[in-house]
Amino acid sequence: MTIPKKRLQSSIFRFKQFVAEAPGAAMSEAIPLARLQSIVNLEVGSYRDRLYPPLTTLGLFIEQSLSADGACQDAVARYLSARHARDQAPCSLNTGPYCKARQRLPISLVEQLSATIGERLEQSAPSQWRWRGRRVKLLDGTTVSMPDTPANQAAYPQSGEQAPGLGFPFAQLVGLLSLATGAVLGVAMGSTKGKGSGEQALFRELMLQLDSGDVILVDRYHCTYFTIAMLLARGVDILTRQHPIAFIGFILER
User: Fold this and answer.
1) pTM over 0.85
2) Rounded Cα gap, residues 251 and 136, in angstroms
3) The 170-178 sheet, strands edge to edge
4) Torsion angle of alpha carbons 41, 17, 102, 32, nearest 10°?
5) What is the tens place of the pLDDT at every residue in 190-211?
6) Beta-strand (E) ranges in the chain?
7) In this structure, are strands 237-241 and 215-217 parallel, antiparallel, or unpaired?
């Protein structure tokens, strides 16, 4: 089934509006409230009754990212308006408390919520979206630049093509995606230099999220004996390009 482009764009626009207007409700639709709260309790632990509790802060952060303005001031103003509509005590328009609340959010919380949503989407996808009844997953990598801080430079050194002290740290990202739903099922992040760095090392971290019977589609960078052997040992078939131009699929008869 092919979804018309205009219909898809309209659906995305309505979704962004829904998240912007009611981020908490949007999150509870993606993940049941009980499961959502259990993830927060696990990743955040106990916390004081603040003006910006974790779920509220995360909802505002998502709303801020999707809004046309994108400013912290706009997010706080929307929160003030929402509290007024619920007859709650007004909050200050000072963005300091909100920014500090954002900094308190553990990265593990965002990672766990993202993985849970991806898993739920994958499990709920209709069987006809699969290839011959099998789940197909995609893997690809990229690099991102980061703020030039001593901590980032120590963990993620800058590119060797840049003069020392004049560049920004680079991090390597590798993502595992569902072909059926487009959902991100997992992300691994690491340095671009040193032992254990590179796409293949990060891919090995994500292999634990592959199930027997899956088919993984990767570029020819991963067409290596050890990668193929490790995947087949897990019952996962791989589709990749063989160096330099041949297109080959390792699909075994079971």
Assistant:
1) no
2) 12
3) 184-191, 170-178, 136-145, 215-217, 237-241, 247-250
4) 0
5) 888 777 678 888 999 999 989 9
6) 136-145, 170-178, 184-191, 215-217, 237-241, 247-250
7) parallel
